[in-house]
Amino acid sequence: MQQNVHMTIRVGVIGAGNIGTSHARNLASLVSGSTVTTLYDFDGVRAAEVAAELGAVAVPTYAELIASDDVDAVLIASPDPFHAEQALACLAAGKPALCEKPLSPDEADAKAVVDAEVALGRRLIMMGFMRRFDPGYLELKGLIGPAGIGDPLIVRNCHRNEVAPYGLDSALSITNAAIHEIDINRWLVGEEYAWVEVLTGRSGPLTPSGQHDPLFILMQTTGGVIVEVEMFVQSQLGYEVTCHVTGGLGVAEMGDGSYVTTAKALHRGHDLPPQWLSRFQDAYRNQLQGWITHLDTGSPMAGASTWDGYVGSIVANRAVESLRSGARVAIELPERPALYAP
Ligand SMILES: NC(=O)c1ccc[n+]([C@@H]2O[C@H](COP(=O)([O-])OP(=O)(O)OC[C@H]3O[C@@H](n4cnc5c(N)ncnc54)[C@H](O)[C@@H]3O)[C@@H](O)[C@H]2O)c1
Question: Taking the complete model, does pTM exceed 0.85, yes or no?
Answer without folding.
Answer: yes
